[in-house]
Design a protein that fits this description.
By secondary structure, this protein is of the alpha/beta class.
């Protein structure tokens, strides 16, 4: 990514994942000047392949993004490496300042910076994340089918997670860890589906030959497992929006925080849209890209409405070109042509 920043654009897109690139492509195809500012830290970087995306199944995440960047550039959009530090109002637009001191002006903002997965402080867990420690059965479940799968209780959705993974393997163990454990109804569901419940705090993961082989409890007991599902707390990457009065709030699911928006991605801050995981915690790559496309189209429509209002106002102005021509016609008649 070598494009240089201009002084201003119709739209600055914060974040260069699927949502940001697809939004930028929609805007660039509408002949909008657009720049994607990408910090280069995609959430799915540890994954070997993208799943659930028609036509791009099992493609490495880095390859998908490189193709997306090339497509945006092909329509005249810019993609620039950088991390946004602050954003502020500037007249009827915005000024976005990067961590390296560069700044750029925009008429609209599309924020697609995603989220950060906050994992339990269990030794060895972070190192396995995206490999044999995972969270989404739709993103990674097929790859661990029929294996010995563990599910670590971390949220109100953990039992549901265990039941989802039970669809993929008959050998699923639910670790209560530091939770109160399943309630009576949940315990019955797990028993009915043959999911073993193990109480006690998980102390560490056992790894051999760079593969997960077991989950170690605080009392020293090791439960053999080759995959572990962990639901992380998800934090929106949105601190730079505070200058615009936008702050992340807890999601209704209880799984993390997000920036609320309407179905088009429009936020309560005028001129600011969001798409992807920064607003939709459950969005996979395909859904994030679709959200970016919807937001991009909505931004373009909003800009068109603004431009049309200005054009009508100029037309109606008493000293507009059309008005002056009409006055000349009424006062001078044919003499206005020198006849």
């Amino acid at each position: 990514m070598t494009d240089q920043l201009r002084n201003g654009y119709d739209v600055v897109v914060a974040g260069g994942g699927a949502a940001g690139l697809n939004g930028a492509m929609m805007l660039a195809r509408s002949r909008r000047s657009v720049v994607v500012i990408d910090a280069g830290a995609p959430r799915n970087a540890p994954a070997k392949g993208v799943h659930g995306l028609l036509g791009r199944e099992d493609m490495p995440p880095a390859e998908l993004l490189e193709r997306g960047r090339a497509e945006v550039r092909g329509y005249g959009g810019h993609v620039v490496t950088g991390e946004i530090a602050t954003s502020a109002r500037d007249g009827d637009g915005f000024v976005v300042t990067l961590a390296d001191g560069r700044s750029v002006r925009a008429r609209r903002l599309l924020v697609t910076t995603g989220l950060v997965d906050v994992l339990p402080a269990i030794p060895g867990l972070r190192e396995r994340w995206g490999r044999d420690v995972l969270h989404c059965p739709y993103c990674h479940g097929w790859e661990v089918r029929d294996q010995a799968i563990g599910v670590l209780a971390t949220s109100p959705m953990s039992v549901h997670q265990a039941l989802l993974f039970r669809q993929l393997s008959a050998d699923v163990t639910y670790f209560t860890h530091m939770s109160a454990g399943p309630d009576e109804e949940q315990a019955e569901q797990l028993e009915a589906r043959g999911v073993r419940v193990v109480t006690g705090t998980v102390a560490a993961l056992d790894v051999a030959d760079d593969r997960l082989v077991g989950v170690r409890l605080a009392d020293g007991t090791v439960i053999p497992r080759t995959a572990l599902s962990v639901g992380p707390w998800m934090e929106a990457r949105a601190g730079f929006l505070s200058g615009l009065g936008l702050r992340a709030v807890e999601h209704a699911s209880g799984l993390g925080e997000h920036i609320p928006a309407d179905p088009t991605g429009r936020t309560e801050a005028d001129g600011v849209w969001v798409a992807g995981n920064v607003t939709d915690l459950a969005a996979q790559v395909g859904a994030a890209a679709a959200g970016g496309a919807v937001a991009g189209a909505s931004i373009n429509a909003d800009l068109i409405a603004e431009e049309t209002r200005r054009a009508v106002a100029a037309l109606r102005h008493p000293f507009s070109g059309k008005s002056e021509a009409r006055v000349a016609e009424l006062v001078l008649g044919d003499r206005r042509h020198g006849l």
